[in-house]
Task: structure prediction
Amino acid sequence: MIDLVFDISGGTLPSAYPYGLWAELTRLIPQLEEAENIGVLPLRMAESKEGMLLPRRAKLALRLPQELVEVVSGLARQRLQVAGSELQLGSCKPRPIQHYPTLHAQLVTGDEEEVAFVLDVESALAEMQVKASLICGQRRVLTDGQRTIKGYSLVLHDLLPEGSLRVQYAGLGGERQFGCGIFVPYKVISSLE
Result:
């Protein structure tokens, strides 16, 4: 697995943009629909009165198997129509996935009850033979009015290098094409003394 990172520019997007973004990506590259484990990392955006604002140095990153890099890099310099907004992709480059002791996912799908969600995550990690401590964050909902995805934000810490890579390669939960269950490095602020 590798992250393919595109420069991206545009204006504002609605908070439910992942649905429209995935539809546009699969329209341009239909092979994405059939591929397993493809993930679209959530865009880093700032909230404004008009919606979610794309910062000047924004990046669009797709997590995918190495063998799809050539096909997907065909998205470079394409114009995307996403939820009524136009986005312009620039050049792209592969970014190897590296191990980090602490990882974060904005939304991991799972049980509505927090205790059951945590038990499911612990079970999934055990199946992957990954040892980690976890911090379950706030409940999150992603909806476009027709479809709804529910889950929790999640931080995994005290990961060994192999476990960190395993979690980043496989993810947790479902709906990776909408940015769910994808883990990225999480900066830890140590206590000031």
Remarks:
- The mean pLDDT is 93.
- The domain at 2-96 is CATH 3.30.70.1890 (Alpha-Beta Plaits).
- Helices lie at 17-28, 31-34, 69-72, 114-127, 161-170.
- The chain is about 25% helix and 35% strand.
